[in-house]
Amino acid sequence: MWTKPRSIKLGGPRGDVIVLRRCLDESGRVVTQDGKKLDQPQFKKPHIYTVRLEKHAGEDWWRSGIAEQGQTC
């Protein structure tokens, strides 16, 4: 639904770090196991996810951390 920067730090000792906050609506997500639908109550309302991106000094690519689910949005 939206993505906003939480923090941007460029030129640090280890490189660049960007932290994003994203509001995602996953209410249509379907999770199955052995062909049977599993209830996923954590996806019923949009939630804010925080993602950390890092680009280390001397590297040409961005590393992405695990998205962490937070409060509803």
Instruction: Output the structural class.
Output: mainly beta
Helicity level: under 10%
Unreliable sequence segments: none
Which series of helices and strands comes N to C? EEEEEEE
Number of DSSP helices? 0
Q: Over all CA atoms, what is the radius of gyration?
A: 16 Å
Beta-strand share of residues:
over 45%
Largest sheet: 5 strands, antiparallel
What's the rounded overall pLDDT mean?
93
Intertermini distance: 9 Å
What is the number of E strands?
7
Q: Per the principal axes of the C-alpha atoms, what is the gross shape? A: elongated
What this model shows, in words?
- This protein is mostly beta strands and 73 residues long.
- It has a domain at 14-30 and 48-72.
- Helices cover 0% and strands 60% of the residues.
- Strands 1, 2, 5, 6 and 7 form a five-stranded antiparallel beta sheet that branches. Strands 3-4 form a two-stranded antiparallel ribbon.
- The protein is elongated, with a radius of gyration of 16 Å.
- The protein starts with a strand and ends with a strand.
Key terms:
single chain; mainly beta; five-stranded antiparallel sheet; two-stranded antiparallel sheet; elongated
Tell me briefly what this model is.
Helix content is 0%, strand content 60%. The chain contains no helices and 7 strands.
How do the strands and helices of this protein lay out in sequence?
Layout: E1 2-12, E2 15-24, E3 31-33, E4 36-38, E5 47-56, E6 63-64, E7 68-72
Antiparallel strand pairs: 1-2, 2-5, 3-4, 5-6, 5-7
